[in-house]
Design a protein that fits this description.
Layout: E1 7-13, E2 29-35, E3 38-45, E4 55-61, E5 67-73, E6 81-87, E7 94-103, E8 110-114, E9 126-129
Antiparallel strand pairs: 1-2, 1-8, 2-3, 3-6, 4-5, 4-7, 7-8, 7-9
């Protein structure tokens, strides 16, 4: 099965966190595309205020609790980085995924989130299907 075109959203500072983190949201994004039962997720942060800080990609699939991916990354001295992970074993149909960049030392601290979930409920995220 050929992958579908990717679905994308901008990455933004999470409204539920108040350490005054910043980012160039117009040039920061997350996108997801599915190939069979596997979703591939790429996140790019541009000019974040967290240069040199250890972060980890997390996701929330279909409204469930956040899951750490194990993908640990550190933005360069400009605060920029591109990173990714794959999520396998998905059932066919429509899904929603929220992409987060969280503090690697305290995974409950979200700094950046995909724009569709940047609200009090942290949902629904990026819609995709196969």
């Amino acid at each position: 099965m050929a992958p579908l075109a990717p679905a994308a959203q901008q990455m933004q500072p999470w409204v539920g966190n108040s350490p005054a983190q910043t980012i160039d949201s117009a040039n920061s994004y997350a996108f997801v595309w599915a190939a069979g039962p596997t979703a591939h997720v790429v996140m790019h942060l541009e000019a974040s205020s967290l240069a040199g800080k250890s972060l980890q990609m997390c996701y929330k699939l279909d409204g469930k609790a956040p899951v750490p991916t194990g993908t640990v990354f550190t933005p360069d001295m400009k605060g920029s980085i591109t990173t990714d992970f794959a999520l396998g074993g998905l059932s066919s149909g429509q899904h929603n995924i929220v992409v987060e960049a969280n503090d690697n030392q305290n995974l409950t601290t979200c700094y950046y989130i995909s724009s569709g979930a940047n609200n009090g409920s942290a949902a629904p995220g990026i819609s995709f299907g196969f």
